[in-house]
Amino acid sequence: MIDPIQGEIVQTTGGIPQADNRLPGWWLWLFWIALALAAGTWLGGSAFHIVPGPLDRYLADRTAALDTGGLVTDDMLASLARDRLAVQAGAAAFQKNCTRCHGDRAEGKVGPNLTDGYWIGGGAPVDIYATIVEGRNAKGMPPWGGELGRGLCKQVAAYILTIRDQNLPGKPPQGARWQPEPR
Amino acid sequence: MAWGVLSLAVGVVLALELALAPDLPPALSFGRLRPVHTGAAVFALVGNLVFAGIYWSSQRLLKVRLPHPRIASAHFWLWQLCAAAAAVTVPLGFSQGKELAEAVWPIDLALAAAWILFAINLAAMIRRRAEPRLYVSIWFYIATAIAVPAFHLLNAAPVFAGVADAMVQAWYAQAAVSFFLVAPVIGLVYDLAPRAGGRPLHSYRIAILHFWALVLVFGWAAPQSLLNGALPDWAQALAVAAGLLLVPLLLAGALNGLFTLRGTGARLRTDPVLKFLAAALFFQVLWAVDGGLLTTHAMSALVGGTDWRSGHVHLAALGWDGFMVAALLYYLVPRLWGTELRSRAAAGAHLYMATVGLLLYVFSMWLAGATQGVMWRAEDAAGRLTYTFIETAVALRFPVWGRAIGGGLYLAGFLVMVANLALTIRRGRAVDGEFDAAAATVPRERSRALLWSRPVAVTAAVLALVVGAGLANALASVGLLIVALLLALAGVAATVLRDPGTPSWHQRLETSGRALAVLVALALFSGAAAELAPFLARSPADDPSTPLERAGREVYIAEGCAACHTQMIRPFLWEVARYGEVSSADDSAGDRPSLWGSRRIGPDLARTAGAHDADWHVRHLIDPRTVAFASTMPSYRHLIAERIAIAGGGEASKMDALVAYLQRLGRSP
Question: Which tens digits make up the pLDDT trace of B123-140?
Answer without folding.
Answer: 999 998 888 899 999 999
